[in-house]
Amino acid sequence: MKKGDDMYNTLKKHTCLAVAIVLVLLLIASSLKGSMQAQAASSKMQTGKVDPTIDQVAQEVLWNIRTNGFNPIAKTKGMVTGGLYVNWRMDNPGITNNVNPNSNDDPPSSHDIQTDLFYLNALAEYKYLHGQESSHDQDIARITPIVHNEFFNYNLPKGWVYFYLLRDGYLLNDPVLTQEAQMAATNYYNNWYDQRLGLLYNKSHTPGVYSVEHSLTAGAALIDAGTRMGHPEWVQAGKATINTVLPASYNIQAQLFYNNMTVNADGSEMVMNEQGKASTQGSAVEALLAAYEITHNPQYLTISTAVLQSLFTTSGLWDQRNGGLFFAYDLNSRTLEQKYKETRAQAHILIGLYRYNQIMRQLGQSQQFLDKQQQLINLLSTNFYQPIYHGYFYRVTPTFGNVISNGPDGTPQPEIYFTTEAMGLALDALQQTEFSTISL
């Protein structure tokens, strides 16, 4: 048998497996009438006015991913499934997956399933915002079964995955994604929540560890899923998790969150990473606001307000000269880490701020930092965006130039690789501002 025949048969086998998983999910999902899908459909997702600048950026980035971003030999769980490249060189898209060879033994098939979900989300938002127009239907049809397969029975303590699956299930009217959101929430509760400690964290490590943003979003996910599905024990676990994470990981003086924590057997916690990353603050605000919309716990809104105040005024993380947020604030040395700015940080903070102002408007209160909100929209549409080649880097210098770092051979070189993570998150943040109401 020829090598080409071997590859064809392998691809055929893996495709059949993926199809089988999806068929099982469809059968399960068909029994959900009146439950999770109906609950998602009742959520408020109202489109506003489409911004022409954002619209152009979205079209160009999605075209770039369609043209250069799909890797037919990407592997998921050891199987060839297809999916997005991790990155590719801006001016030479044939150079792909520039990843650390020490952490990956097969760069050609390197793959991060999270970027596939970001991509599907960007496509779903674009389609929904444009009255179900069909220009990206083939892209959606290509990536959706891959995402179905990748996130079947998702079992990691990352709460943001639940919200993306649920939102995309609603936007695309896809009951499989909605069911997978429920599976993820079930696993958060069954496998990662410690009832004795009242905390959802990564128990596979000794001592236990958690990323603050992941545990906060997982707590919010349990509150949301428990409310939708009628699981009060999930709601209680979500509240307990947030109420345990807050006093341990929130630095009251700086009004910022630490990045990572360790959890000892007796439940005591220690700071593992003393950085107050800008991206962590944005994700934390997103999580607290999602929890607030259901519980109406005023503490969640109060802390969100304080974090935004610190980000934009007191911590120095906001670059008053050029705009945008620096990488991090060291909560031990009280110094800024300002050599570069992450694209993902601007995206998370824009989402958190936009949702915060939606709540302020609903409460009849004054919206805050609207100037910073518009600046973030402008920065992600212009300074962070590469308009000639249509993409986003992982990070840029404080003045939005190329970061210089050492390559694998130790030679300094500019970072000019578009990353599918940065592209997906930037589009998510920009397009969310085109929804007048978002509650997922």
TrEMBL record:
<dbReference type="InterPro" id="IPR008928">
    <property type="entry name" value="6-hairpin_glycosidase_sf"/>
</dbReference>
<dbReference type="GO" id="GO:0005975">
    <property type="term" value="P:carbohydrate metabolic process"/>
</dbReference>
<protein>
    <recommendedName>
        <fullName>D-glucuronyl C5-epimerase C-terminal domain-containing protein</fullName>
    </recommendedName>
</protein>
<dbReference type="InterPro" id="IPR012341">
    <property type="entry name" value="6hp_glycosidase-like_sf"/>
</dbReference>
<keyword id="KW-0732">Signal</keyword>
<feature type="signal peptide">
    <location>
        <begin position="1"/>
        <end position="40"/>
    </location>
</feature>
